[in-house]
Amino acid sequence: MTIPYKSTFKNDIIEWARDHRCHHKWTDTHADPHNTNRGFFFSHMGWLLVKKHPQVRIQGKKLDLSDLFADPVLVFQRKYYIPMVLLFCFLLPTVIPVYFWKESPLIAFYTAALFRYCFLLHSTWFINSAAHMFGYKPYDSRISPVESVWTSVTAVGEGGHNFHHTFPQDYRASEYSMKLNWTCLFIDAFAAIGWVYDRKFVSEEYVQRQCDKHGDPEKRHKWSTFS
């Protein structure tokens, strides 16, 4: 999992997890690294172009990250962040097409490395921006995250954001079928061979009660035709 992650050239896993925990704990406040209230561009990519808001740093230091630093793989990738990114994000994606099907090095670099990298970045960033602004809210209408099917397609299942923020403990991250949630399919595949365990999910009854109380139950199965 660490190697594919390095091919995306994002922050190291420990830093990413810390920011994600801040995002969930203080959503749409100054302690949220990509606070939607600061506008589409900021939540999409602007937050990476400026210094973090002081509240992000203050609140982030209060989080318990001991579980992350106790993982030797995460500590290793943090220590060797730059060489791993150069290898897995740029060098190998360029070399593999050149070696195996005689692609031009320039074309391989600009497509398999740079274009792929940019596409993956924006697919991820749209979850922070579009999936907090443009969509519907079947589970909790009081929060900004929405259900965004098109971002679920580009981000292989991460667009069920109203579900994800309402039930952050659910590993599935959405109720979309496997056609729209390849991330869940990936996790389940590794669970089948014993590499993933202790998957948590909320019950059907709990989800329905939440929809009835704070959401819009009529829109819950809006995309059930994809099942």
Question: Secondary structure elements and their pairing?
Answer:
Blueprint: H1 2-6, H2 13-25, H3 40-44, H4 54-60, H5 66-69, H6 72-79, H7 81-101, H8 105-128, H9 149-154, H10 161-166, H11 182-192, H12 204-214
Write structural notes for this entry.
There is one protein chain. With 227 residues, the protein is mostly helical. It folds into two domains: 125 residues, no CATH class; 99 residues, no CATH class. 53% of the residues lie in helices and 0% in strands. It is built from twelve helices and no strands. The longest helix has 24 residues. The radius of gyration is 19 Å and the shape is globular. The two termini are 27 Å apart.
